[in-house]
From TrEMBL:
GO terms for cellular component: mitochondrial outer membrane. The gene is LOC116061388. InterPro entries: ADH-like_N (IPR013154), ER (IPR020843), GroES-like_sf (IPR011032), NAD(P)-bd_dom_sf (IPR036291), SV-ATPase_mito-regulator (IPR052100). GO terms for molecular function: oxidoreductase activity. Residues 1-40, 382-423 are annotated as: Disordered. This is Vesicle amine transport 1. One of its GO terms (biological process) is negative regulation of mitochondrial fusion. Residues 53-380 form the Enoyl reductase (ER) domain. The lineage of its organism: Eukaryota, Metazoa, Chordata, Craniata, Vertebrata. Keywords: Oxidoreductase. It comes from Sander lucioperca (Pike-perch). Residues 383-393, 400-423 have a biased composition (Basic and acidic residues).
Length: 423
């Protein structure tokens, strides 16, 4: 999901953000009332997309402002961990339509501790550990969000796990159980099987008896995804995955989950058994590196599946699209999140964390996903990296952050300071 962001506070702004509930991504709004609150300004670290392009466009800033004043239904969360999603690779390149124009703070999910609650919030309290879903704005230390989009974390769940659940698992669950209606004995093809959504799909398939999972991924990841439940890992880089699947299952598969787009959607459609379901939920083929690639976009667009309804009828197949960002039904999201938390409690799902990066290492996090190295979820940590944690051979910081300083004064109520990030 994605949506509104937490722009820099302007002195004249009485209300910081007035987003609809799902656009829960808010930087804290200033308080004007409590003298105690005014005494101590709030400083928090935030990753800001300053323009479209490569890694250097995401800058770490420290924002300072007055203490937030919560409106009804809102909570203030101290964020401990956030998820990196493929959508943020697209967003950085200007290819994610739900993300507002820069400067904008990305981040659609996180976990943390509630620091304050709005007056009518009854079911959340200060100190609660919560998972947060948002349209954007989660890549910062402090956020004001709608309490409705916070979910209590089970005791045994780490902050990293909590941040890894919402986007990947809601997407996987809704596609498998709401759209494709996966049932015992069915077969599923998932691309990017070693990624965040891939692991979520694989784990959820295992909650249904006798489901066969075909998963495409780079070869070095096969052992891990097979251990995770992928029945047939396929190296799409060296083999034709359509041929490989046909060798194992000549009739094809019942469900294809397609996050790639372009010619892969056509292949997916061709692989469907009669009464099978194809769900298109991404366009990763548009991304070839850190910068926008117009040729890859044109190729993906040109090769996309094109059907007329008569042909579709005669094929006895279903073609669906899924995009979590366009699901505005908070009750549906909430119901599904609670089902997922139940499954977590039963030990049936558990996010696989690939790696964790502090905010100053965001470039490394992006690079890991762009270079297709991750096996599972990449997590960002708002907390500053301690000196001793820094790798001995830490490379020189690249020029992706410059330092600007501004003093807090009566006229400007929020200040922003960019800090050095690591390469
Ligand atoms: N519609 C929705 O609501 C929704 C929600 C969440 C995610 N998605 C989509 O689901 C897909 C997976 O998302 P995710 O966040 O879980 O990411 P992810 O799977 O962790 O993505 C990274 C992995 O995908 C593979 N990959 C394939 N093509 C790639 C490319 N062009 N660039 C980089 N990596 C590529 C690589 O693994 P291998 O080398 O093993 O292939 C890489 O390690 C994305 O297409 C995303 O847009 C859609």
């Amino acid at each position: 999901m994605s949506g509104e962001e937490a722009p820099t506070l302007q002195p004249e702004q009485e209300k910081k953000l007035d987003d609809p509930p799902l656009d829960a991504s808010q930087a804290p709004q200033e308080s004007g009332s409590s003298p105690a609150a005014e005494e101590k300004p709030l400083s928090f670290r935030s990753l800001v997309l300053t323009g479209y392009g490569g890694y250097d466009k995401v800058k770490l800033q420290v924002k300072t402002q007055k203490q937030p004043q919560l409106e009804a239904g809102e909570v203030l969360v101290h964020v401990k961990a956030c998820g990196l999603n493929f959508a943020e690779l697209l967003g950085r390149q200007g290819l994610y339509e739900l993300l507002p124009a820069p400067p904008v703070t990305m981040g659609m999910e996180g976990s943390g501790v509630i620091e304050a609650v709005g007056e009518d919030v009854k079911d959340r309290k200060v100190g609660d550990r919560v998972i947060v879903l948002s349209r954007s704005g989660m890549w910062q230390e402090m956020v004001v969000v709608s309490a409705n989009l916070t979910f209590p974390m089970p005791e045994q769940m780490s902050f990293e796990e909590g941040a890894a659940i919402p986007v990947n698992y809601l997407t996987a669950y809704m596609m498998l159980f709401e759209m494709a209606n996966v049932r015992p004995g069915k077969s599923v093809l998932i691309h990017m099987a070693a990624g965040g959504v891939g692991f979520a799909v694989t784990q959820l398939c295992q909650t249904v008896p006798d489901v066969t999972v075909f998963g495409t991924a780079s070869a070095p990841k096969h052992e891990t995804i097979a251990q995770g439940g992928v029945t047939h890992p396929i190296d799409y880089r060296t083999k034709d995955y359509v041929e490989e699947i046909r060798k194992i299952s000549p009739k094809g598969v019942d469900i294809v989950l397609d996050p790639l787009g372009g010619s892969d959607t056509q292949k997916g459609f061709s692989l469907l058994k009669p009464l099978g379901t194809l769900i298109v939920f991404g366009a990763a083929n548009c991304v070839t590196g850190q910068k926008k690639n117009l040729l890859a976009m044109a190729k993906t667009w040109y090769n996309q599946l094109s059907l007329n309804t008569l042909k579709l009828m005669q094929s006895n197949k279903a073609v669906c699209g899924f995009h979590l960002g366009y699901i505005t039904d908070e009750q549906l999201i909430s119901r599904t999140m609670f089902k997922l938390l139940e499954l977590y409690g039963q030990g049936k799902i558990k996010p696989r964390i690939d790696s964790c990066y502090h905010f100053e290492e965001v470039t490394d996090a992006f690079r890991r996903m762009h270079e297709r190295q991750n096996i599972g979820k990449i997590i960002l940590l708002p907390e500053a990296k301690k000196e001793e944690e820094k790798p001995k051979s830490s490379p020189e910081p690249i020029e992706n952050v410059e330092k600007t300083e501004a003093a807090v004064n009566d006229k400007k109520e929020e200040t922003t300071e960019e800090v050095k990030a690591e390469d």
